[in-house]
Sequence to fold (818 residues):
Amino acid sequence: MKRRIGTLLLSVSFIITAALSGCGNSTPSSDSSVGSSTAAVSSTATESTAEISTDPNAIDPKTLKPVKLLFLTMGETPKNLAAVNEAASKYLTEKINATLEYRPISWGNYDKQINLMMAANDKMDLIFTASWMYESQWVARGSLTAIDDLLPKYAPDYIATVPQDVREAGFIDGKAYGLTGFKEWAANKGMVVDKAIATKYGISPDTVKTWTDLTPFLEKIKAGEPTMVPIQARSADTPMVGMFDTNAYDVLGGGVGGLNRAANNTTVVNYFDQPDFMEFAKLMRAWFNNGYFNKNASSTTEMTFNALKVGKAAMYNQSGKPGIDAQEARQAGKEVIYLPMDRPFMTTGDAVSALLAVPTSATDPARSVMFANLLHKDKYLVNLINWGIEDKDYVKVDDNTIKYPDGMDASNSTYNLNMSWLMGDITLNYLWDTDQKDIYDQYKTFNASADRSKALGFSFNSDPVKNEVAACNNVINQYTGAIYTGSLDPEVTIPKFIAALKAAGSEKIVAEKQKQLDAFVAAKSK
Amino acid sequence: MENKRTHWVIHVIFIFCSLAAIIPLLLVLIVSLTSENSIALYGYTFFPHEWTLSAYDYVFKDPQLLFQSYGNTIFSTVFGTLVCLCITSALAYPLSRKTLPFRKFFTFFVVFTILFNGGLVPWYIVMKSNLHFSDNIWALVVPGLLLNGFNVLIMRTFFKNTIPAELIEAANMDGAGEFRIFAQIVIPLSKPVFATIGLFATLGYWNDYWNSMIFQIQPKNFSIQYVLQNILLNLQFLSQSRSSNAAAATANIPQETSRMAMAIIAIGPIIFAYPFFQKFIIKGLTIGAVKG
Fold:
């Protein structure tokens, strides 16, 4: 009897202790309002609960409440991150009375992690997003704050450096959700060619201006170089992808339906069904039949530059931007030249490729915007976060150039972040001794010379047709690999492809894109 | 004569099966010792043109991080497996005794958790915000791996079928209390199931990268699988990163071969755990089969 009671008491006390420990004191950082955020409507900044100084010009940091900023982007955690966060916090406390925790999240996990943190309403103050990183989905969920009222007050340098049409390209439903990073906003398409081969056969941007110009040279290379295949391709990376999928048409976010760039109108067409698609496909087929592609083009997943590295191929398709030839030379391990096939083209996808957005769980949206603005203006801060601490992670060669300290290189660097492209203004960064000296001027010229798409700023909301989009994407994945690498006869395959697309609902998608685009154009011209 | 032939057929079949299991592993090992250049030129082969340790050099370039994460994983595996066995058996044993009040309800409760759960987000919220398993070693031990309804049912079935009720009655009549019966009679007889569940738990803890991904923030709290996965992802990113300062070094980083090296590093210690557990499982299975 006694032992029975003893055991009973023991087990009951176990249970009670366990239950009580669960209700332990919550630390200040954990937020208790968990379920509500997913249903929350996107809140504007005026509803923020923190007190902020309303003086628009000189914001005296002492009038601001101290705030801890959590800044999240993709990246590998550098070894010296703690030291950099400390230095940045010290600096930011003087400027805007805030401390910084910059936390890079590994590439494969970034979107999952951010989604989880949004669902759990974990505090985040500034995050990276882009047209290809769920910006529209996060806005639709109500997880990002509209910052239109905050930008003029707290981000004057951002407004000064990034032109209006690029800023507006990132708007969703007419509202701003983030600060677009200053980098290249357009792309042109072309081929990267092994320089030795180019010189030998006379290939240069003067002799090759369009894709069809290439054909005689490919013949010569095939005849003259038995160990090499003229073009190294894989289904994601063939010249047809370059000439067609993303340059002759603004594909309005991808999938079926796009705007013909040359026609310069706002009529959405199914570009797979157009005569120039068939023509390009026939060109690819001719090239394939003549043996200009590598045999395993439609199935390989190997990176195309590897073939140049070992001398198996002479050229490959690549999107262009300033400094592309120097960049690809490093990848391929030998000198290359770049053959651009068209002028640079700016679409929404290109312009909104790096955005710093303010989530709804931010402690003080105004402070987040202030911090993001500093990334567009403050050279010390940008270089601190991107490259680390001077003399420890890098050493200065001259005022604007840096290099690794002795004994260090990219593989053992103590601060190996390499994310300068997503943090504010790329031109504020110091140049590495391996960079081209005029690269930032090249960026500016490149951006200025780009053709703007008529649909710049339009992003397609696929929800009304999402079943058709999924079905069509399956069809596209099924057929385009073979068509783009010329492995199958286009006269036979393309009609089948079009029929399959129609069966999957492609006309509905085109109609929907047209409807949304018309509404967008009408709203813009008001 | 007939006997000998069937013997040989069986031998051949099993030799074939064993080879089919071993040869791919051998290929992984050989590729991890090949140089990246010969992979690019000649592809995967059993007889590489160039032997080198550069893949392992690359993966071990930050030994401190690797050793720390090895330590995290080993601690969470050993500690986690032990605690898992304690809790699972403590839950399974009463469920196997017919005299437990509300036994049907408790069993149903356990089965229910196998079939339904709250989903990822509630799990995340409970673990991180309410129980504070964030960025510390317990985040590797407790969430998701410590207690599993499936294991409980396996143990309960084993207890029910292998431990005769008469044995327990006899011990009871001799004056043993419940805890004593459990510790001194049931557990020694249950070595096979403890080995089995122990193996499941060890594998679960060893292979876990999910907990690190969701809960851990600082690299020093990561588990080995997550560190290896990160090295791979960052390597892929670096080799496609195209920024000038990175490319000089990445042009020579072994990519394919370091993937293989990582596979070898990840499975290395656990391969030695298998033979250890194997002894218990085999012995236990035969004991259970013989009645009386």
Q: What stands out?
A: Chain A touches chain B through 47 residues (CB under 8 Å). The domain at 64-184+346-451 of chain A is CATH 3.40.190.10 (D-Maltodextrin-Binding Protein; domain 2).
